[in-house]
Specification:
The protein has six helices and ten strands. Helix 1 packs parallel to helix 6. The chain starts with a helix and ends in a 6-residue tail after the last strand.
């Protein structure tokens, strides 16, 4: 599933490549996504200017003249640029296209159909956005904030930092990597994590996410950037999916909330 670095990579690629910022038309090819694409979107966004394109959590936000398009990539969603020659070659899993006035076309493809697109007037009140926690790369997210959220909680620390209401965008891979850097076991109870450890964990989350964004995200299976290339952070993973830790110890893999959680019993306490 595309997480914060992958979505940030897509946003950066769109911003770098777009010349026109005016939507000529919006075409729905297959409305069946996690939530059906609203049939009114083509009329609502036609001839609207894109004021800004940015990321909020795992969502791509297009701020228009009088509203917002919220795009979620789900598990297998891919946004790609296509040329005029490709217009007639619509694939089985192509769902919608955004045509800009300069003939640039963005096409959304989603094999498993867990992605979505919504048009809203007020972004902050939308059900996908209103309960999201702070951005992990913001100043608001630090050790003190994390410690306050950990206080008196019996949940595993890995589950806490993956809770989008606590902090957005820290997916399974990045949670494992940050906990390894912080020397904290993923199943350690939140209430036993110290302020010093929270400081280290907050810094590690920022470090891992920034490093992954610089590498274009992580591709384990489905994720690709707009030009079809994979993310290269997989080659830099320190604990996730590894057999042997750098200390020479066999890496352990336990399930937390149904997700693989890799850790080293020597390096992490």
């Amino acid at each position: 599933m595309p997480e914060l670095p992958e979505v940030e990579t897509v946003v950066n690629a769109i911003n770098k490549s777009l010349k026109s910022m005016t939507i000529g038309k919006f075409i729905i090819m297959n409305s069946k996504l996690r939530w059906d694409i609203n049939k009114n979107i083509p009329d609502v966004v036609k001839n609207k200017n894109i004021q800004n394109i940015y990321r909020r959590g795992k969502h791509i936000i297009l701020r228009l003249d009088d509203g917002y398009l919220i795009i979620h990539l789900g598990m297998t969603g891919i946004i790609k640029f296509i040329g005029q020659m490709d217009l007639n070659s619509i694939g089985k899993h192509d769902h919608y296209e955004i045509h800009l006035k300069d003939k640039t076309i963005l096409r959304y493809n989603d094999v498993r159909k867990f992605g979505s697109i919504h048009w809203v007037k007020n972004l902050k009140d939308h059900f996908l956005i209103k309960n999201l926690g702070p951005e992990p790369l913001s100043q608001e997210f630090d050790g003190e904030y994390l410690k306050n959220k950990c206080r008196n909680r019996n949940t595993a620390i890995k589950n806490l930092i993956m809770n989008q209401n606590i902090v957005v965008g820290v997916g399974n891979i990045y949670a494992c990597e940050a906990l390894f850097l912080s020397s904290i076991r993923p199943h350690r109870k939140c209430k036993y994590v110290t302020l010093k450890q929270c400081d280290e964990l907050a810094k590690s989350i920022k470090f891992v996410l920034k490093k992954s964004i610089k590498s274009g995200g992580t591709t384990l299976k489905d994720f690709k950037t707009l030009d079809g290339t994979p993310g290269y952070f997989k080659q830099k993973l320190m604990i996730y999916g590894c057999d042997i830790c750098k200390c020479g110890t066999m890496v352990k893999n336990i399930k937390l909330s149904g997700r693989s959680s890799f850790y080293c019993s020597i390096c992490q306490k």
